[in-house]
């Protein structure tokens, strides 16, 4: 995985538990290496929390978190595979409204051209 230090701010995503809502927070990159990234955040995360740097798709787990001044310093151990299920990584698109449905005859007419 490439280092993520091309930009100094990223959106960090995580969920406290698999049943909890996905959280997002803007963080500042302090340093980045092949296997770990150090971030400055105004929120504290527990060790072993699965996270995603949304802007670059880099995922991993919180290795350490400690308070420094008015912020928290997070060390993220980067992994090639992201530990948060992909369905939790995407924003909820909201409600889906369907204005009309196809009748079976309309469906058959469309599908006959596809040899289905």
Structural key phrases:
10% helix; elongated; mainly beta; Thrombin, subunit H; 116 residues
Layout of SSEs?
Blueprint: E1 9-14, E2 23-32, E3 36-41, E4 50-53, E5 58-68, E6 71-79, H1 86-89, H2 104-111
Antiparallel strand pairs: 1-2, 1-4, 2-3, 3-6, 4-5, 5-6
The CATH architecture category equals Beta Barrel
Calculate Rg over CA atoms: 21 Å
- Distance from N terminus to C terminus (CA atoms, Å) equals 42 Å
CATH superfamily: predicted glycosyltransferase like domains
Element-level helix/strand string: EEEEEEHH
In the CATH scheme, the class would be: Mainly Beta
Largest sheet: 6 strands, antiparallel, barrel
State the helix count. 2
Q: What is the 3D form? A: elongated
Strand tally: 6
Q: Structural class, from secondary structure content?
A: mainly beta
Number of domains: 1
Q: Give the low-confidence spans.
A: 81-89
Major beta sheet, strand line-up: 1-2-3-6-5-4
**Mean pLDDT over the residues:** 78
Helix-residue proportion: 10-25%
What's the CATH topology name?
Thrombin, subunit H
Portion in beta strands: 35-45%
Quaternary class: single chain
Short description:
With 116 residues, this protein is mainly beta. It has helices at 86-89, 104-111; strands at residues 9-14, 23-32, 36-41, 50-53, 58-68, 71-79. The protein has a single domain (9-90), classed as Thrombin, subunit H.
